[in-house]
Design brief:
Mean pLDDT: 78
Strand order of the largest sheet: 1-5-6-3-4-10-9
Strand content: 35-45%
Largest sheet: 7 strands, mixed
Order of helices and strands: EEHEEEEHEEEE
Distance between the termini: 14 Å
Radius of gyration: 14 Å
Helix content: 10-25%
Low-confidence stretches: 1-24
Structural class: alpha/beta
Number of helices: 2
Length: about 130
């Protein structure tokens, strides 16, 4: 299964992360995922206009690379910042190499609840969907 998340294009700015509202060749976040991100930020006490979800890629997992999701109060200096319906997503430059073109969705069924990554850069993923290889 391919994982999907779209991150918008980015323009570099000095000392402040760029904010992109256009998902051209970057990361896409579905409406369901945006609602869930907003709910988690609220639960964590993080202001939507300041904080956001941090998407990343780490070494490890059954397929070689693992997706990472964290919630942060503000972007870091070199982050690419994408905005979807007022919700921001932060991606560090190294992770963006593996995540560009991806769509992030949120699924809530009887069998599974959580974020789903639809990633065209993934050549293989494990059964749990949190690990992949490029």
């Amino acid at each position: 299964m391919t994982n999907m998340v779209t991150i918008g294009s980015n323009t570099e700015q000095a000392q402040q992360p760029a904010v992109s509202k256009a998902p051209a060749q970057s990361i896409l976040v579905t409406e369901k995922a945006v609602k869930r991100i907003r709910a988690v930020l609220d639960k964590e006490g993080i202001a939507v206009d300041e904080g956001g979800m941090r998407l990343g890629v780490l070494g490890g997992g059954c397929s070689g690379l693992s997706y990472s999701i964290k919630f942060d109060t503000q972007p870091r200096e070199r982050d690419r910042v994408f905005e979807f319906d007022g919700v921001r997503v932060f991606v560090d430059p190294k992770s963006f190499i593996y995540l560009h073109g991806m769509t992030l969705d949120y699924e809530e069924t009887l069998m599974r609840q959580g974020f789903t990554f639809i990633n065209p850069n993934s050549s293989r993923s494990c059964g749990c969907g949190t690990s992949f290889s490029a």
